[in-house]
Write a structure and sequence with these properties.
The chain is an alpha+beta fold and about 475 residues long. It contains 19 helices and 20 strands. It is about 35% helix and about 20% strand. The longest helix has 19 residues.
């Protein structure tokens, strides 16, 4: 049986029957008289297609910005969709976000403006007046082709002048009632002539579906899978979405281990990782925009197995394990053992990534995570690295280093590790160990960097880690300024 997709839009419940499940939210909007949401890149980079999704959290509605261009229509089921057309008040008055943009002259050609409006709307609904850094973070996923950022930033500050009340805060009870009325207890199943889509509710259903459809695509946040459809024009026969599997989205801390459900979004993971691993938290902020972090999952990043995935070098260096589950049970293994070859993992038929287990740092250990890319925000790594060292006095008792972007898989630098363990923690010993990296990696040359550049960066990141761990970071600044 094919279910209808139900969501709240414009204060009403919308029911969509017979839709192709590979339709993106952006495509549906523009075909259904909602043209304010624009297509710029169709790959989640420019933010012109930004919309907000509302979900019930207790008795309140939480709003998060996402990219409509890589969000599949069935993922709206049970949620509220807010587009730029919804922001004007019924009496014609502009929303505080829109009015602030008008007052600050924050729109030039206007193409990108709806996306900025929606990113600011989500910020307005969810945060009391943030500082400039918080505003920049919220807007890092939106590009202005006319380079008019200063007035947009000023508008972001001014939009709070009269408080945070708007028609959405006034309609919380009504919206919550609508969302409760379409809450689904059973699995969503959508089928068209060319594809089928399932959204299981628990791991048992997920395991059963995987056994029945071994070639199915698993959809977590869609920040990679969405591009397979929109840019590579690939189409799966069956897609199994993980977003409604309740026991996959938890994040918990117990007995010195942070357990991260494979379906947990980066936005929900970040506040739990950052206090323990500040550098890792900074990396998560850089790996994607707010829109990407609201949708993307660390479990999806790990399962995808890209050699340039940003989270894996840090996770491997910090000793993370991956939990693999199936109808037959579960097993865990060190994350570095999960990757066998380019895009090839240790997943067996019927298995899925259930969780990641990240040990919390011990007192006295030093950890760091680095990312080198052409742009600071929203760019793919040329080299990513994670380091962890345990000292016994002045001697290296334990050391782990892992890199991304320098091999076919995210990989530990085992020869570098062996060259340092048991050695004094000195610049001379670290420098003497650096040639081991040439044994560990023979980087490739591509559009992002040359082999020589990657090799140099890998060595320099090791030196940077040593200098920062020993409190000599000022030497980095001196070297940078000659």
């Amino acid at each position: 049986m094919t279910d209808s997709i139900r969501f709240v839009l414009g204060g009403d419940v919308v029911t969509v029957a017979g839709a192709d499940p590979m339709t993106t939210v952006l495509q549906w909007l523009r075909a259904n008289r909602r043209p304010g949401t624009k297509e710029g890149c169709a790959e989640g980079d420019c933010g012109a297609c930004t919309v907000a999704l509302g979900e019930l959290v207790g008795d309140r509605v939480r709003y998060r910005a996402v990219n409509a261009c890589i969000q599949f229509l069935p993922t709206l089921d049970g949620k509220q969709l807010v587009t730029v057309e919804d922001l004007k008040h019924p009496d014609g008055a502009l929303h505080p976000v829109q009015q602030a943009l008008v007052d600050c002259h924050g729109s030039q050609c206007g193409f990108c403006t709806p996306g900025f409006v929606m990113s600011l709307f989500a910020l307005f609904r969810e945060q009391d007046a943030p500082d400039r850094a918080g505003i920049c973070d919220a807007l890092a996923g939106n590009l202005c082709r006319c380079t008019g950022y200063q007035p947009i930033l000023e508008a972001a500050e001014r939009m709070y002048d009269d408080g945070r009340d708007d028609q959405f805060s006034a309609a919380v009870a009504q919206t919550a009632a609508l969302l409760k009325s379409i809450r689904r207890d059973e699995m969503l199943a959508v089928e068209s002539a060319s594809a089928q889509y399932f959204a299981p509710r628990d791991k048992t259903q997920l395991a059963r579906l995987l056994a029945e459809h071994p070639d199915a695509w698993l959809l977590a946040g869609g920040t990679d899978v969405g591009l397979w459809v929109t840019k590579q024009h690939r189409r799966p026969q069956t897609m199994i979405a993980l977003g409604e599997v309740a026991d996959l989205d938890g994040v918990s801390e117990a007995d010195g281990v942070l357990e991260i459900g494979a379906g947990a979004a980066y936005t929900d993971i970040l506040p739990l990782i950052e206090p323990h691993y500040p550098g890792f938290g900074a990396l998560i902020r850089r790996l994607g925009s707010v829109q990407i972090r609201n949708a993307g999952t660390m479990g999806g990043n790990v399962a995808n197995g890209s050699p340039i995935g940003d989270s894996m070098p840090a996770l491997i260096a910090f000793g993370a394990e991956v939990v693999l589950e199936s109808a037959e049970g579960s097993r865990s293994l060190p994350l570095e053992d999960f990757y066998l070859d380019y895009r090839k993992t240790a997943l067996r038929p019927g298995e899925f990534v259930g969780a990641l287990r990240l040990p919390l740092p011990r007192a006295g250990d030093h950890h760091a995570t680095y990312k080198v890319s052409k742009r600071f925000d929203q760019d793919i790594s040329a080299v990513a690295a994670g380091f962890a060292v345990t000292l016994d006095g002045d001697e290296v008792a334990g050391f782990r280093a892992a890199f991304g972007g320098v091999a076919a898989i995210p990989k530990r630098a085992t020869h570098l590790e062996s060259a340092l363990i048991g050695q004094p923690w000195t610049l001379e010993a670290v420098t003497a160990a650096l040639p081991a990296l040439a044994v560990d990696f023979q980087p490739m040359t591509d559009m992002r960097a040359s082999s020589d550049y990657r090799a140099l960066v890998a060595r320099n990141l090791m030196l940077r880690f040593y200098l920062e761990a020993t409190g000599q970071a000022d030497l980095l600044s001196e070297a940078a300024h000659g």
